[in-house]
Amino acid sequence: MRLHRDTGLKRSREGAAMGPIRSAYEEDPDMLEIVREFAHELPARIAKLETLVAGCEHAALQTLAHQLKGAGGGYGFGQITEAAALLEQALKSGAAEPQIKDRAAELCAILRAVVVPETR
Amino acid sequence: MNPEVPNPNRVLVIDDSESIHKLVVARLRPEGLEVLGEFDGELGIERAVADQPDLILLDIGLPNVDGFEVCRRLKEHASTRNIPIIFLTGTTDTESKVRGLDLGAVDYVTKPFDQVELRARVRAALRTKRLQDILEQQSFLDGLTGLWNRSYLDRRLESELNVARRYGRPLTLVLADVDHFKRVNDSFGHLFGDIVLQGIAEGLRAYARRSDIVARYGGEEFAVLLTDTNLRAAMFVSERLRSSAENRHFEARSEVVSVTASFGVACSEDLGADLTPEELIRAADVALYASKDAGRNCVHLYRDGDLILTTGDPDALGPEDQEGA
What we know:
CATH topology of the largest domain in chain B: Alpha-Beta Plaits
Distance between the termini of chain B: 33 Å
Number of domains of chain A: 1
CATH class of the largest domain in chain B: Alpha Beta
Largest sheet of chain B: 6 strands, mixed
Largest sheet of chain A: none
Oligomer: heterodimer
Largest interface: A-B, 18 and 17 residues
Structural class of chain B: alpha/beta
Number of helices of chain B: 10
Number of domains of chain B: 2
CATH superfamily of the largest domain in chain B: Reverse transcriptase/Diguanylate cyclase domain
CATH architecture of chain A: Up-down Bundle
CATH topology of chain A: Four Helix Bundle (Hemerythrin (Met), subunit A)
Strand content of chain B: 15-25%
Order of helices and strands of chain B: EHEHEHEHEHHEHHEEHEEEHEE
CATH class of chain A: Mainly Alpha
Radius of gyration of chain A: 14 Å
Number of strands of chain A: 0
Number of helices of chain A: 4
Order of helices and strands of chain A: HHHH
Helix content of chain A: 55-70%
């Protein structure tokens, strides 16, 4: 993946450019292995998230958002927690479908930008 | 097992997310804790009952039974009531925090959690648990003799009877009463009486087996609960306990005083399947009174309604093979 130093902080719609996201804990020897596992499992979560959005399965989507909110920051991905919290909030408050789709897309974009750390 | 290394504290994590389990394991590793895990509320409760962890980290959003309900049921259950619970959850509203704490949780940590903070909160909860355990244990000890007290014995008797029934194992109760204790007190004073009780207690503890539960049952009465022990085996233990009392000497005003005790023994095997703790105590008590009536300083066994004197007659129970044991 190429580095986009300038766009790292910019929230973007799905498909738009976003800088790579690295775990704040990838230097922590206690954490490296499970951060790698977590990052490896993200494509499966993205697929599930997209399926749930397409099927308007809001309850299951809310559970997934809730889990990502709780786990993301713990694995050193504060942005995942932030985006997942916004999605969970939209679902909880019964926001309109376009807003839910927007927030889900933002979350997916962040998940896609996560870099799997190298083993040391 | 190395006796110098205490068992690590065990923490049970109940959370439906695999990512959280791995994270908690990694973050609690520096504390040297053993981490157990369940992904479902119902299984979490079963695990807590079976494994008796020192602390539970509990999520709220769980499939089937939510964390509040799990907490409520753990606090309702006698065997899990004293295990501290920390909610570890992504649910951050004040109402949920208040509800969780009011249900009996000791703490509430939101996800994503700060690892340093979580460790500190876990340490704090374990510290309080340790003090609580010490207090509870002290409330079950007899102040004068250091033996277990009556309320502990009553509690153990009930649970050991359940175990005995479930696994078809014999449980035997020995009651002992110091002979002419009133006379000792009247002649030498109550302080000397206390020394006698302490000495008898020491003898019982020294001559009981490691698995036996020795208690001061009241005044000058003692009780020893022998798990997984039939009447015949209990007879030998009881004779040993009786002679430990007989052979102990006390000095009062340059006088050497000997004290004896009378014993009554009853075993769950002879008393039917639906035996209650009270019935076992009553049977042992009847045997104890038979020893008093027979001149004291002896052991009687209660068997099938008969009272059998065994002191000086180790064959009183008849040959072993007749019991089919």
